[in-house]
Write a structure and sequence with these properties.
By secondary structure, the protein is mainly β. It is built from 8 helices and 52 strands. The strands form 16 sheets. The protein has a 5-stranded mixed β-sheet with strand order 1-28-31-32-26, with no helix packed on it. Strand 5 and strand 6 form a beta hairpin. The radius of gyration is 63 Å and the shape is rod-shaped. Keywords: Calcium, Cell adhesion, Glycoprotein, Membrane, Repeat, Signal, Transmembrane, Transmembrane helix.
Length: about 800
């Protein structure tokens, strides 16, 4: 149930590992050996040959050597990739008394991921001499002791193993003792002193002997200790322990001073010879974790135990009476493992950043271990369950961290992964290691414009190279993949000279007008711009740009009627009986601009008599402002100002001549000041006729004759023709009161030719009036004998 709950909480790879001793290597692994203290850089093996790989494959696949604890005892030669020693090795430091000293390691290859098991055996050399725990030993022996009695002695220690370790003991020459070399259950050798000849206290109360420990090296090394023997008077009972062998189990986390066991011995003698004191025999004061109470025989911890270092202790306990006689027993203390070691995680391979577009990328390779044993040694390895990564168990205690699928850098560019290794001991211990994995960019996003279309406004008559606006695109990628280049796309309108109108800055998207724009020629145009990133492959997008040319007030109003610029003056007839508001005429003007720049207003600038006429501001109609009288002059000259609404405003003027008549009975004579203009207009008419005649020559000859006859008739009519001015009251139904700025629909028009010059002229249209009864006198008609009957009128 507990395991199920753990699996429900986190996505785990529950791969229980019973960690093997690093020395236990399978038969399939390759083993190499080297002598300890060998110099760094010494050749160990040719892995290319041993693993059956191709030449240079170790280098191309990123080969690496992984030892437990992340120590690097071996290295690769950078040129040959042979396996070399990375440092001097001390067998005693690495393995202690364990023999053989084997260091397992793995050879890790990438692309694809592959493991090879191997091991390195460190062979011992005789670099340590045997050492006794004390330089002197004291023995008290009764003089009645019989020959053959054995006295245990303190053993020597040799850090070397095998043949280089401790092999035998000898003693200095003497007539009373010789020494035996014995083997303990764990393989260690200890000395025993044997009495060969009875002692006589009165003859020799003490003896001094030299105990020698020899190893098996070549040449052998030795260590010595002095034995001082005191010959005691008669004490015929020795202390005896209740048990010859005591056994105890102690958890490794027991506190200092805690009781391990109590030993007990008794002596049948009386008095001081029957009093027993206890002591630990074969004591290594440096490494011995126990101490004994000399009176009670209680053995307690004086140093913390560590199951991972030593699993059991063999202790000899000695009981000595007051007469110097002693007895001995053995104590075996077994250390019990507790879950006091957190799991260890050793990272062998880690890569960051990783590409975003590839699935199942190996991000990391690591191994886990736990120095505890049994259930405390089993571990579970897991990561958070909300990450797109998986943990996969590999060979032995190795794991690989891989991506679950292709990543998206634009969604998340960095992951913080916490690897948690938890053992199954009580209480559970765990180790965590955090990895920061960055995702490298792949060009999988096209640039995106901030708008799908842009509208830019440019006032006409701009200066060339004017900055008219900008487009902007962003790319969700990074680095060079996010760098955007702008360009103009070919126009879909073949008649639009886009290359001569605008240009774009490739780096920042600024748009420039290459030449001055004219609203009257081009009011608007559109084109497409492209944004391309610099990735591989390059991705692009486009946007529509619409340019609207704003009108500048660069055109003055143009007066269509009455015609100006040297044409014959136009005279308007107004009956004196006209009511106020009578429509005299309408000034018609246009403006080439648009919008408010083309809004025209009219005002009377000059007049022969102020207050007699007025101009409507919005439509240009000229109307009488009051009743006319006999005192008002007959001839009037009006200057009308036509002004647009631009900034600054532009204007033009129109000149009108008004003749006041009494019922149209007064004949109209052309104004004297109009004669020069009349002559100039006649010349222009000739040029126009010639041009028309030239064009007409392209038609059939019959058409040409017809046109020529018509022209000739008009020419003759112009020399003698006159238009009569009707007399009588001005007909009211001809007055325009519609307010539209045009003459009444009841008007009829014809072309009048004016005589008095050598050339003919097309005159403006004038209405054909009905004949009314004459109102004037014959004398009045004679007063104006030179008057013409034709009046330009519109």
């Amino acid at each position: 149930m507990m395991q199920t709950k753990v699996q429900n909480k986190k996505r785990q790879v529950a791969f229980f590992i019973l960690l093997m001793l690093w020395g236990e290597v399978g038969s399939e692994s390759i083993q190499y050996s080297v002598l300890e203290e060998t110099e760094s850089g010494t050749f160990v093996a040719n892995l290319t040959k041993d693993l059956g790989l191709r030449v240079a494959e170790l280098a191309s696949r990123g080969a690496r050597v992984v030892f437990k604890g992340n120590r690097q005892h071996l290295q690769f030669d950078p040129q040959t990739h042979d396996l070399l020693l990375n440092e001097k090795l001390d067998r005693e430091e690495l393995c202690g008394s364990t023999e053989p000293c084997v260091l397992p390691f793995q050879v890790l290859l990438e692309n694809p991921l592959q493991f090879f098991q191997a091991s390195l055996r460190v062979r011992d050399i005789n670099d340590h001499a045997p050492e006794f725990p004390a330089r002197e030993m004291l023995l008290k022996i009764s003089e009645i002791t019989m020959p053959g009695k054995i006295f245990p002695l303190k053993m020597a220690h040799d850090l070397d193993t095998g043949s280089n370790g401790l092999q035998r003991y000898t003693i200095s020459s003497n007539p009373h003792f010789h020494v035996l070399t014995r083997n303990r259950s764990e393989g260690r050798k200890f000395p025993e002193l044997v009495l060969d000849k009875p002692l006589d206290r009165e003859e020799q109360p003490q003896l001094r002997l030299t105990l020698i420990a020899l190893d098996g090296g070549s040449p052998p090394r030795s260590g010595t200790s002095e034995i001082q023997i005191q010959v005691l008077d008669i004490n015929d009972n020795v202390p005896e322990f209740a048990q010859e062998l005591y056994e105890a189990q102690v958890p490794e986390n027991n506190p200092l001073g805690s009781l391990v066991i109590t030993v007990s011995a008794r002596d049948l003698d009386a008095g001081s010879f029957g009093k027993v004191s206890y002591a630990l025999f074969q004591v290594d004061d440096v490494n011995q974790p126990f101490e004994i109470n000399a009176i009670t025989g209680e053995i307690r911890l004086r140093k913390a135990l560590d199951f991972e270092e030593i699993q059991s202790y063999d202790v000899d306990v000695e009981a000595t009476d007051g007469g110097g006689l002693s007895g001995k027993c053995s104590l075996v203390v077994r250390v019990l493992d507790v879950n006091d070691n957190a799991p260890e995680l050793t990272m062998s391979f880690f890569i960051s950043p990783i590409p975003e577009n590839l699935p199942e990328i190996i991000v990391a390779v690591f191994s886990v271990s736990d120095a505890d044993s049994g259930h405390n040694q089993q571990v579970i390895c897991s990561i958070e369950n909300n990450l797109p990564f998986l943990l996969r168990p590999s060979v032995e205690n190795f794991y690989t961290l891989v991506t679950e699928g292709a990543l998206d850098r634009e969604s998340r560019a960095e992951y913080n992964i916490t690897i948690t290794v938890t053992d199954l001991g009580t209480p559970r211990l765990k180790t965590q290691q955090s990895l920061t994995v960055q995702v490298s960019d792949f060009n999988d996003n096209a640039p995106t414009f901030t708008q799908t279309s842009y509208t830019l406004f440019v006032r006409e008559n701009n200066s060339p190279a004017l900055h008219i606006g900008s487009v902007s695109a962003t790319d969700r990628d990074s680095g060079i993949n996010a760098q955007v280049t702008y360009s103009l796309l070919p126009s879909q309108d073949p008649h639009l000279p886009l290359a001569s109108l605008v240009s774009i800055n490739a780096d920042n998207g600024h748009l420039f007008a290459l030449r001055s724009l004219d609203y009257e020629a081009l009011q608007a145009f559109e084109f497409r711009v492209g944004a391309t990133d610099r990735g591989s492959p390059a991705l692009s997008s486009e946007a529509l740009v619409r340019v609207l040319v704003l009108d500048a007030n660069d055109n003055s109003p143009f007066v269509l009627y009455p015609l100006q610029n040297g044409s014959a003056p136009c005279t308007e007839l107004v009956p004196r009986a006209a009511e106020p508001g009578y429509l005299v005429t309408k000034v018609v003007a246009v403006d080439g601009d648009s919008g408010q720049n083309a809004w025209l207003s009219y005002q009377l600038l000059k007049a022969t008599e102020l207050g007699l006429f007025g101009v409507w501001a919005h439509n240009g109609e000229v109307r009488t402002a009051r009743l006319l009288s006999e005192r008002d002059a007959a001839k009037h000259r009006l200057v009308v100002l036509v002004k647009d609404n631009g900034e600054p405003p532009r204007s033009a003027t129109a000149t009108l001549h008004v003749l006041l008549v009494d019922g149209f009975s007064q004949p109209y004579l052309p104004l004297p000041e109009a004669a020069p203009a009349q002559a100039q207009a006649d010349s222009l008419t000739v040029y126009l006729v010639v041009a028309l005649a030239s064009v007409s020559s392209l038609f059939l000859f019959s058409v040409f004759l017809f046109v020529a006859v018509r022209l000739c008739r008009r020419s003759r009519a112009a020399s003698v023709g006159r238009c009569s001015v009707p007399e009588g009251p001005f007909p009211g139904h001809l007055v325009d009161v519609s307010g539209t700025g045009t003459l009444s629909q009841s008007y009829q028009y014809k072309v009048c030719l004016t005589g008095g010059s050598e050339t003919n002229e097309f005159k403006f249209l004038k209405p054909i009036m009905p004949n009314f009864p004459p109102q004037g006198t014959e004398r009045e008609m004679e007063e104006t004998p030179t008057s013409q009957n034709s009046f330009p009128f519109s």
